[in-house]
TrEMBL record:
All residue ranges annotated as the 4Fe-4S ferredoxin-type domain in the record: 386-419, 422-452
Organism: Absicoccus intestinalis
Pfam families: Pyr_redox_2
Xref: InterPro entries: 4Fe4S_Fe-S-bd, FAD/NAD-bd_sf, FAD/NAD-binding_dom, Metab_Enz_Cyan_OpOx_G3PDH
Tree of life domain: Bacteria
Lineage: Bacteria, Bacillati, Bacillota, Erysipelotrichia, Erysipelotrichales
Keyword annotations of the record: Oxidoreductase
Name this protein carries in UniProt: FAD-dependent oxidoreductase
Amino acid sequence: MKRYDLIVVGAGPSGLSAAIEAAKKGLHVVVFDENEKPGGQLFKQIHKFFGSKEHKAKIRGFKIGESLLAEADEAGVEVVLNATVCGLYQEKELTVRIHDQIHHYKGDAIIIATGASENMVTFDGWTLPGVIGAGAAQTMMNLHGVKPGNKVLMLGSGNVGLVVSFQLLQCGCDVVALVDAAPRIGGYGVHAAKVARTGVPFYLSHTIVKAEGKDHVTGVTIAEVDSHFQFIPGTEKHFDVDTICLAVGLSPMSQLLKMAGCKMEDNPKRGGQVPICDKQGQTSIPGIYVAGDVSGIEEASSAMIEGRMAGLAASEYLGFIDKAERDTSLEALDSALDSLRQGMFAPKNKGKKIEKTDEGIDISQNLLKHGYVADDEIERFPGITHRVGVHPIMECTQNIPCNPCQDACPMHCIKIGEQITSLPVVDEDKQCIGCGMCVASCSGQAIFLVDESFEEEYASITLPYEFLPLPTTGDKGMALSRSGKPICEAEVIDVKSSPAFDQTHLLTIKVPKEYAMKARFFQGGQENA
């Protein structure tokens, strides 16, 4: 039996963060992970993170993963891959299956960071090849470069469903519809909006009746559901698809904690069966800690902070740091974690229908039902301004934890304030120089630069663009509305790419002036994939 000061189960964002924090305090740390590559979900996440600088905002997930791996290596953390932990016992002993052999380990402290698994729903034909989870689609696309399908229907409008839908579009798939049995979109409105403006229709209060096909998916039928989630006869809709992607939630992988005898609870707001633990992640068994989704489903940014907190708590438990040092470090981490848990998507608001923003502005009902803010709703939000010359238009309409735009603007035109969930506002006394840094920094792709006085009859609009092939100056096509409908002809007048933009290209189009506040996407003469 081999001993370590600390054994971490799971090499995802929370597990690596915990291991790094503990190793820096002098602990001998090993991390076991059942996968062939470390990093957990981070290497599937090609989108930019929300939050602030301390939360690694506007950095893409896979780059955060690379940074964590480098930091773990520098700290001397031992990472063992293809290692499945199949037993955890009360004396902090583990059995681990490595290369068809069972190994026995003992840790003076244990941190469980096993994450969560995808939920599934059953319907007629759900076992057909072509029905896949959203995580599987991300693995195929972002880790192995495999296109999951040609025509895809997405079930689930939480952040996972919205983000993966956009990535499917980036991969060249045709997303025929985004469906959810809930009456309103569950994820961030900015994620929904960037999907909607590409032309993907949303069907809320709908779910799948059946998948069609004999040996693989060839189509799908959906239908509207009532308030009791029963099908409404006569509302069936058919789509020709070869892939059905399911993003219907996650469940904490807490089996090891049950095996060890930790006290558990069934908590729907945290995702299901989770351990009872304190703020530092310590379970009912002293020396056994949890971090990340295994203790409650949240974003990866929160998981990394929870991991660091658990690493510090374990370090103090084993005597490598004193309580005063632990508490000083935990205070800053607790503040950072609390800032991520504010706004309308805070854990305390899960399942609630939020009617107004923190500023007292009516939430866009069109956004919640159709994925985009209606033209007659957009003007009430503080990020919408009109002035002579180029200026930012910030279509951020929900209180979400994010503020990179405030830091990105060199002229300090954009203000959010200390509360990172506040809606962004434009400082009317500051002059925008049209650099586009705010457009590129926005994790939700919700900022546009508009010049309503560009020419006598035309306005210019600078859009965030993350599709290939990249249009070139002089290309002509159609401008699409927030709903994804073609509304006018458009011409590309500038394309900017810079390392500082981190693969978000700035596409500037010219449209008739009356469409300056309506055109939000460019569709070239040939299909953009």
